[in-house]
Design brief:
Number of strands: 2
Strand order of the largest sheet: 1-2
Order of helices and strands: HHHHHHHHHHEEHHHHHHHHHHH
Number of helices: 21
GO molecular function: gluconate transmembrane transporter activity
Helix content: over 70%
Largest sheet: 2 strands, antiparallel
Shape: globular
Keywords: Membrane, Transmembrane, Transmembrane helix
Organism: Knoellia aerolata DSM 18566
Transmembrane segments: 6-37, 57-78, 98-123, 135-155, 175-198, 238-258, 270-289, 301-327, 347-379, 391-413, 433-453
Strand content: under 5%
InterPro entries: Glcn_transporter
């Protein structure tokens, strides 16, 4: 019954948001209350999971969101993204979505997905018209989503990749050897197929872009983006203005690599923490803009960032509440009883089973990493008797864990707000792209099974 009630809660929330245009925060809370009461958590238990899930998500990503959005606002005030987009449009042109998807999948998987989206979303928005006047925004959004999660699940040191490899006793080097080409191919192929889907009338700007965004020159702009230009800072070399992004990326990547190499040092651990790394980036950006605009000018820029931050934090936290209620409802135990790996299953059946378990868990729980980790925990006890290389089963779990990222994910709401998409627009971009990526990567896992069997 937990599965049925979870499905009702999720579909009900989507219906309330899209059909009846009820605010996502209210719709998600209604879903939380229904699911908690329907699955026997009781009034106190339901409230406990709602508040606990909200607090847990805020502890994990609250500062990341705040620092990331403020860095974006300060970079916008320096004209950084406009100049960067101009250079990319000249050198990459219409291939920019592929460049973004491939880069996010292979170069930055060590960065938390929440950090990646808050740093990359502004560039995706700014560059959209240069890619395609009509379909640039959804194409860039889809490329952004699949690029982030292809790296997250397939490429070490992505969090989900490292976790699944560890649970399945797969050496990280082996996982990287198989996962890197699959992650890159998934990102690029999905970006291509997604563009074909968009070209068939799938996108409707009138309903798929946030109605509160102001449309200027065929692209959405938030009213809060009307901030002063830091002219002297804008004259700095582009690479200098990109330091608020580059420095945190280097610090976080260094910390992740050190962790994988089992190297520990207090200073490296401190600076490599994502919260501290982004705070350092914020200080760099703040110093640049403060010298150009003064206290009042930088205050206006930060005020615009705070306005956006509050909106993202609230809807992200409530998304975490729904995930907590679903997890507490007994969903994981129910699925574990329903799906047990058959020791005599063929390679194809074993791969499909692993993929399906991970897909269902992610769809229900709303977390790619939790879905992948839970699926690995269910399958790992019997993986040795399946007659399939463990790395293949691990890759199948990673593939399925990407499927259909939707409204019960806090990332979904961050993505939606940062790119100024409506809920329907985010379902058409992020949900569609990750679903397509899960399907695209599945045959690649079958190919990997043939290679592993040699």
């Amino acid at each position: 019954m937990e599965i049925l009630h979870s499905a009702i809660a999720i579909l009900g929330a989507i219906l309330l948001i899209i059909k009846f245009r009820i605010d996502p925060v209210i719709s998600l809370l209604v879903a939380c209350v229904y699911l908690g009461l329907a699955t026997g958590l009781g009034a106190d238990g339901t409230v406990e999971q709602i508040t606990g899930g909200f607090g847990e998500i805020m502890a994990e990503v609250g500062l990341l969101i705040g620092f990331g959005v403020l860095i974006g606002a300060l970079l916008h005030a320096m004209g950084t993204f406009n100049d960067l987009v101009g250079i990319l449009a000249t050198r990459v042109g219409k291939r920019l979505p592929y460049a973004m998807a491939g880069t996010l999948a292979t170069i930055f998987p060590s960065i938390y997905v929440d950090v990646q989206v808050v740093l990359a979303a502004p560039m995706a928005k700014e560059s959209a018209p240069a890619v395609d006047r009509r379909l640039g925004l959804p194409w860039m959004a889809g490329a952004l989503g699949i690029g982030i999660f292809s790296g997250y699940v397939f490429v070490v040191p992505g969090l989900a990749a490292v976790a699944v490899a560890g649970l399945m006793d797969v050496p990280l080097g082996t996982y990287l050897l198989y996962g890197l080409p699959i992650g890159l191919a998934t990102a690029l192929i999905t970006t291509f197929l997604f563009r074909l889907i968009l070209g068939r009338g799938f996108w409707n700007a009138e309903t798929d872009i946030d109605p509160d965004a102001v449309i200027v020159d065929d692209r959405p702009h938030s009213e809060t983006e009307d901030v002063p230009l830091a002219e002297s800072a804008a004259r700095l070399p582009l690479v200098v203005r990109l330091l608020p992004i580059l420095v945190p990326l280097v610090l976080i990547a260094s910390g992740a690599i050190a962790q994988v190499a089992d190297v520990s040092h207090p200073v490296l651990d401190f600076l490599g923490d994502a919260n501290m790394a982004l705070f350092i980036g914020l200080l760099i950006a703040f110093t640049m803009v403060r010298r150009s605009l003064g206290a009042d000018g930088v205050g206006k820029v930060l005020t615009a960032g705070f306005h956006t931050t509050g909106e993202i934090l609230l809807v992200t936290g409530v998304g975490g509440s729904l995930g907590a209620v679903i997890a507490e409802s007994g969903m994981q135990d129910t699925l574990k009883e329903l799906f047990s790996a058959d020791e005599n299953a063929s390679v194809i059946v074993s791969i499909l089973l692993a993929w399906f378990i991970a897909a269902v868990l992610h769809f229900a729980i709303g977390s790619v990493s939790v879905g992948a980790i839970t699926a690995a925990g269910i399958i790992s006890p019997v993986v040795g008797s399946l007659g399939v290389d463990p790395v293949v089963i691990a890759l199948a779990i990673a593939s399925g864990a990407m499927f259909a990222l939707h409204v019960n994910s806090n990332f979904f709401w961050m993505f939606s707000t940062l790119l100024e998409l409506s809920t329907k627009g985010s379902l058409k971009t992020l949900t569609m792209a990750t679903s397509l990526g899960a399907l695209v990567s599945l045959p690649l896992v079958f190919v990997a099974s043939l290679v592993a069997a040699l």
